Amino acid sequence: MEEYSQLLKNLYGSMPEKKVSTERFEVPQAEVLIQGNKTLIKNFDSICKTIRRDSKKVSKILLKELAAPGSMQGNALAIQGKFSDRVINEKIDYYVKNYVLCKECGKPDTHFEEEGRSTILVCEVCGARKPVK
Ligand SMILES: [Zn+2]
Question: How much is the pTM?
């Protein structure tokens, strides 16, 4: 838990603007459960709802980052292999930092727009447009 809040501090601390509203935007901690050789993120669906992203898209990036196959099981994401909650939360932070938070103003009010072959992260607050991988 402490490591996670430190991670969040680092994340927000590295933003150029310091006006990031953490009250309004808090990504829930992943509820990680290891079952045999699988890792379940039990609250995956609610995490995706909080960051306003499609769970399929989030899981695609997450699984790529973990280099493991997986699939949705109801509201949970089931991943092949054993991963600690620290690793899972790090990957979710990575996703939030790169695919949710605006690079200019640090606000989470963003969405994707397709522009030709690239995907653009569009900020609804300051209007910044950044291509994402
Ligand atoms: Zn912005």
Answer: 0.78
